[in-house]
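A brief tutorial aside. Many learners find it easier to grasp structure tokens once they have seen a single protein encoded end to end. The record that follows does exactly this for Glycoside hydrolase family 3 protein. Read the sequence first, then the structure, and try to relate runs of similar tokens to stretches of the chain.
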Amino acid sequence: MTTIAGGTTVPGSGQDTLTRDALTVLQPGFPGTTAPDWLLRRLGEGLASVGLFGRNVASPEQLAALTDQLRAEREDVLVAIDEEGGDVTRLEVRTGSSFPGNHALGAVDDVDLTREVAHELGRRLAECGINLNWAPSADVNANPSNPVIGVRSFGADPDLVARHTAAYVSGLQAAGVAACTKHFPGHGDTAVDSHHALPRIDADQSLLRARDVAPFRAAIAAGTKAIMSAHILVPALDGEYPATLSRRVLTDLLREDLGHDGLIVTDGMEMKAIASTYGIERGSVLAIAAGADAICVGGGLADDETVRRLRDALVSAVRSGELPEERLADAAARVRKLASWAGTRTAESGGTRTDDVGLTAARRALTVTRSTTYEPVSEPPFVAAFTPVANIAVGDETPWGVAAELARLLPGTETASFAGEGAAQAALASAGARRIVAVVRDAHRHAWMDAALDTLLAARPETIVVEMGVPQSPPRGALHIATHGAARVCGRAAAEVIAGE
């Protein structure tokens, strides 16, 4: 073994240890449903993780073949995915999820059910060769106007969120898939989406610890293998750097105070909260220096050029003395440690396949309010979907609503989407004499949507309302159904009620 500037050469590898460590801490995405040549080459050079998104998934069989292809190049590769179930699904990005999301599980408030849902979801991930899930969200949805968390949270009560976060971690990891609890130190009290800008939480330390940090403490006690940082500025913790880049948050609070000994993963570094203020190269160096172990990048950037730039930025930072080589080596060692755990992990014995647990949970999560004048639906209705702009985490590829399931139960059901000023008048004109089912998502956050419901119900008081976001507004309509999420199974559960099943 010969020593070179900035590291030592690994025999037979053609790569010095510094360069390999820099590759090891990256978790890049990539395009397509098969692995590109550049990605396979980087795996041979030291890359230890990849991230999958909806663009990489066509079917369970294709996904299993893809992960087999990755492991043929590197047996212990960490294959991560952003699969929360509910509104944020990659496994079922084109059909909608078979599992309700966190808010529905929090509405039921049965930790055994949450654990069972997480276990079944984990089993399906493991079958496809995925061993790291960027879930669950442990954010306490303290701000009803939150544009990016909402139904991705178990709720607004810290104790409820803590116990369901712990149950989810336990269920997922019992299936052999590492949990990555997010978004530390808590993204719930924000009114800004960090995909677009840098949010700020102005709460004092006592509130932050009692409310936002509590679920992460529970996740650590449950043994979560990884925690993902949030791109948020929390002045009570660090007035200069957002959490992802803050030593005070990642090392002092998370690592030393809370005792998290597992992996620390950044949220996507291409998100504008980081990319537009620091740039992804500078941001990645600062994140590793602050205590992060893995750099997630690839939701929007997914090519070899990005990987090379980030690798070189980390190497240059070490050689310039800005980033201690020991810190980079420690981060890479933590990635390899989790890869080793995941590579030898199998589902715990005694678990049973529970294909219908998602639908069972979705049915239990419904909150149904009927007026005294409600009349059951006897003819195929018209479904008016009042559709907001989807946030980037959810995406616009995944279908939502109740129309498809109602059409199955009541053949002849028709639907159309409406948005903005004039949405109600357009819906009334399209519906004609048919009974209207108005489907909304976070009506309390969208003034146009709330106004559309007012107009619709004034003209057609027999209208049925289905709220598929956070049910913050009071129930209204002849029949009001709150599903606590827009997963496919939530739509099916609501359709069953509407159709009288």
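Self-check: The domain at 17-344 is CATH 3.20.20.300 (TIM Barrel). If you spotted this yourself, you are ready for the next section.
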